[in-house]
Amino acid sequence: MRLSLILSTISTISIASGFHLFPPAFNPRQSLQKATTPITAFSPFPRTDITSLSSTETAEASGGETYKFDAEVSRVMDIIINSLYSDKSVFLRELTSNAADALDKRRFLSLTEEKQFSDGGIKIKTTPETLTITDNGIGMTKEELVSNLGRIANSGTRKFSQEIGKNDDTSLIGQFGVGFYSGFLVADKMTVETCREGGWHKWESEAGEGYTVVETEKPEDMEDQGTRLTLHLKKDCLEYAKSERLEELLGKYSSFIDFPIELWTEKTEYKQVPDPEDETGEKKKTVPEKVEKWELMNTQKPLWLRDPKEVTDDEYGEFYKSTFKSSYDDPLKHTHFRLEGQVELKSLLYIPGMLPFELSKNMFDEDSKNLKLYVKRVFINDDFEDLIPRYLKFIRGIVDSDDLELNVGREILQKSRILSVVRKRLVRKSLDMIKELKESDDYDKFWTNFGKYIKVGVVEDEQNIEELSGLCLWTMSDSEKMTSLEDYVSSMKEGQEKIYYISGDSKSQCLMNPAMEALKKKGYEAVLCVEPLDEIAVQTMGKFSDKEIVDATKEQWEDEEDKDQKEKEEERLQPAIDYLKELLGKKVADVGVTTSLTSSPSAARQGQYGMSPSMQRYMQAQAVALGEEENPMLGNMNEVKLELNPGHSVVNKFADMVAAKAKTADVYGELLYDLAMITSGYGVEDAKGLSERIVGIMEGGGDAGGVADAEVVG
Hints:
Blueprint: H1 2-17, H2 28-31, E1 57-61, E2 64-68, H3 71-84, H4 90-112, E3 122-126, E4 130-135, H5 142-149, H6 156-164, E5 187-195, E6 200-205, E7 211-216, E8 226-233, H7 243-253, E9 261-274, E10 284-296, H8 313-323, E11 333-339, E12 345-351, H9 357-361, E13 371-375, E14 378-381, E15 396-401, H10 417-438, H11 443-460, H12 465-471, E16 475-476, H13 485-490, E17 498-503, H14 507-512, H15 515-522, E18 527-529, H16 532-541, E19 543-544, E20 547-551, H17 560-572, H18 574-584, E21 590-593, E22 602-606, H19 613-625, E23 640-644, H20 649-660, H21 665-679, H22 687-699
Parallel strand pairs: 3-9, 13-15, 17-18, 17-20, 21-23
Antiparallel strand pairs: 1-2, 2-7, 3-4, 4-8, 5-6, 5-8, 6-7, 9-10, 11-12, 12-15, 13-14, 16-18, 19-20, 22-23
Helix pairs in contact: 1-3, 11-12, 11-16, 18-21, 20-21
Protein name: Heat shock protein 90
Pfam family, one: HATPase_c_3
Keywords: ATP-binding, Chaperone, Nucleotide-binding, Signal
């Protein structure tokens, strides 16, 4: 119903006014897949009113004038109330921002026209059924009431900016002209009492029922100029008449507004009074007392607007703790900057001292709020994914920009060139912070908490891959301390042309891999990829410092002399090789000989384009998570080649068994395969068979009956 209403309304308005709400190729059905998704069709800075919404009918009523909205206006009003905002509580942000705009306008005019202006402020008070917002700002004349509040998207703020010209001294928030109507999200009637010059007037409306404008007396508790807005709350919105709820919302949305916001509160205080039961009059007792008073809501100062040279480290730390509710977390690093030129931006970014709790369960938790976006110190949202890439999800900070294009509901960023510029600047500043941290003693702590995010960045951020690669730390085969690839390259042995890595589920498993024998033989160190993300990262990098990064288990280690020796040994062991091919069948892609092994009798090697065992397990886990029995991407990538060490006594013993046609040759052949799979990181599927083979050897005195005692077949 709502979708059809919106689409039909849009069609009616477009035909009636010639104004297109949706750009070409925009699919409103995709935009409205969820009922809570705000419409993003309004232009962020409309050059034309959505409708020519001057009143079409007037009539005398109660000594004033009654105005009727156009039919189209009523339907647009329905869209604003029911579809524009995803959270009805934003009405307080919009109306408080309007009051701040009014104060800003009056302050600006008092400076330019040398008029007297007392200290401006906003006061909010409630009754059980109403909410009142009062300001001593610029106010409105009768004509402005009709023009600004009788026309949807007729922004008085934008018009004021155009009249005075763009001026850095102004700090006006509202530009869309629809924020006022957000009051109807929680109210079924709104009353505005206001005066700029020429006496006081009262505007009153019940949403789609039109509105009335009448002359009125100045409220006793107001100055000669200003505005009072009263919302008559809906029955299901009476929570907004409670000071506790308003205090929560003002703290969220308006804690950095430039003018004081005072809320009338009722608090219980405790005081000492004489105990009437004490005849001496010396004893005291504590009694509760309800106290009503104005309480200042926006006590915090927008630290990011100050000159960084004037802010101390303690102030940065306290601001971080209070803003991001991290009482026990001292940030590792911060950067405070202002950008000018293509985009004006003020920002304060932090690297937390510990991994936020919500990210410890899910490193990309959608409910984790890392960046808070403000426009003119008014909080807009903390869930803008496009502001910063997900691999910097752990960065906390404030972004305050006047140039980012928002939708009319001010809850969603519009895709734009400016957004792209801001994103690049935030990434640059974040990486600069991490680079500076890398030169300090705190980098190990940073890496423990956030290292996996940097490796995700290596995989996802092609533009900054070189810089991110240099920030990564890796487990090494010859060191207990994690090391950067820069240090690895600087300590490479003379003649080493490549960076070698081995993957496994742990460091001990990597060190057990037969490929380590070839590396040790050459005197080379290995980067140990102990998590699937490590292997994906090094494969994405491909090179570092002009050095190719290769999988040591796939490297061909034989030189020309070794190749000659390998051919001779393959010829000598050919009967054993053929025997194993027939015995193992489809378990292996091939069987051969290698001269790179020094202590292991056999090894399992992947083909050049095959997946490592740890990567295969990771891919299979992904398939299971998606409800699939097998990952189709694996294909033949899990087929291995069994390689034998011709210098090992076990291999030669097996060759003798094959030559003697001993029954136990099968047992030894299977064990050579099992051993290769275990040490190479694949594990054994037939654990029961392996157990039986080991028990058989143990019962046979360590030789499965021995070759001499074995039965010869044929």
